[in-house]
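user: Kindly work through both lines:
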Amino acid sequence: MNIKSFSRLTGFVYLLLVPLGVFGIMYVPSLLVEGNLPLTIENIKSNEFVVRLAIAASLFIQLIHFILVLMLYRIFKVVNIRIAKIMVLLVMVGVPIAMLNELNFGAVLFIFANAEISNLLIPLFFELHEFGIMIVGVFWGLWLFPLGYLVYKSNFIPKIIGIALMIGCFGYVIDSFMFIIAPDFGFQFAEFLFVGELMITFWLLIMGVNEKMYDIVKQNAI
């Protein structure tokens, strides 16, 4: 497979994270009704199978993220192999944290299966899951900086995409630390700074890398 086709395949893999992320990460928390435990319990009971699917989707997201960063490594190692390795490392740290965080929703299902355990614990596990998301959010942000740097330096993908990715890094990181330091702050920076991820996804999917420039960069790296 030539590099242009491979980069388009990488864009497709990146795109898979969007629908799976919306469903896997956002669906289950939407069932929590603040201050109304009976309604929360009813929501989960009536959607138990969908909750299980959402947990499975969240785990699948991490597997895709693992594959994605290895594909991106193959593309960008010709730019700077050390920075590319740092990018991979940051994802590798975040993946197991995100997967282990799904234990909190697994605990909610376990409570339903064991009547002797108090349902009052359910909101606690929702809160713990949200806290876990904020922890892994640090790494969801950090890996974007080396990716953005590699894009910016590559010359085979528009530099503006690299800049947007590096800026997007700070959205996740700031949100994570603000959640811990000032939990009532409310504003989510990542919601407005994720445009770089959309740009790189659709650029790779539709345009792919510039093969001529890629070959030049590859030759200079040898």
Notes: The CA atoms of residues 171 and 189 lie 5 Å apart. The chain has a mean pLDDT of 89.
